[in-house]
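Continuing the batch. This is chain 6 of the set; chains 1 through 5 are on the previous pages. Same settings as before, nothing changed between runs. Recording input and output for traceability.
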Amino acid sequence: MKLLVTGGCGFISSNFIRYVLKNHGDFKIINLDKLTYAGNLENLIDVPKTYDNRYKFIRGDICDAQLVDKILREYQIEAIANFA
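Output for chain 6:
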């Protein structure tokens, strides 16, 4: 399963990402976050090292329709979890 998580650097969403990667070995996660006041990359500092080939961070805004469309097509996203 290829999952797009929007707003993935927040407290709840970062724990969601960690949970999914730990418990679902077949999942790949693309994390799209604008990194505003609520998003902090340090919430996921361990994730790229632990799940290197199953996790990718992209800095961007979900209001950018072209970016979201590109991510959906390029990574063949099957589901979206919106925390943004």
